[in-house]
């Protein structure tokens, strides 16, 4: 099995939309305009490809976006810096392949060199103990709950502190920016969050 976690390509958006909207009640549905918004504004939008087939995706945004999600806005009101996981969806054919943990490791690596906090939420109605336990074992803690409308489902708002960020901030971000390395680069860097790469000592332009 050949697995790659990589940036999404524009021509794959229809396939991503199909995976999202086939996920059932656990994932909010999207239309093409909403997915296009993510493609143009998300700080992190990556897919899992297995043997040439899309197996899932994860979308995350930093603070400061105009994204209208009530749960995203809650984190904006409570934390100055974070990466917010809006959704992770794995196609049913590829469940139980460990892709959830692989994605979370990847987005954690993306976030910890940029912000001190990784955030998300899970539905509590209906409660899915597998999802709750997954986030708990990955280091997330509940920081709040909310129901955005009388008709909406209760959610648990979760956050995970990223202790590596303090070192990165003190060593790099406050002294010229991140090294110019491919694994540090984001796919879609919004104007509000430009990464300011610097060259490593002794490195020259080719």
Please specify the SSE layout and strand pairing.
Layout: E1 3-7, H1 13-21, H2 32-41, E2 44-50, E3 53-62, H3 70-78, E4 83-90, H4 99-112, E5 117-123, H5 129-137, E6 141-146, E7 155-161, H6 164-173
Parallel strand pairs: 4-5
Antiparallel strand pairs: 1-2, 2-3, 3-4, 5-7, 6-7
Describe this structure in words.
By secondary structure, this protein is of the alpha+beta class. The chain has a single domain, classed as Aminopeptidase (3-Layer(aba) Sandwich). Helices cover 30% and strands 24% of the residues. The protein is built from 6 helices and 7 strands; from the N terminus they run βααββαβαβαββα. It has a 7-stranded mixed sheet, sandwiched between helices. A hairpin with a 2-residue loop joins strand 2 and strand 3. The longest helix is centred in the middle third of the chain and has 14 residues. The radius of gyration is 17 Å and the shape is globular. It starts with a strand and ends in a 33-residue tail after the last helix. The C terminus is likely disordered. It comes from Rhodanobacter glycinis. This is N-acetyltransferase domain-containing protein. GO terms for molecular function: acyltransferase activity, transferring groups other than amino-acyl groups. It holds the Pfam family Acetyltransf_1.
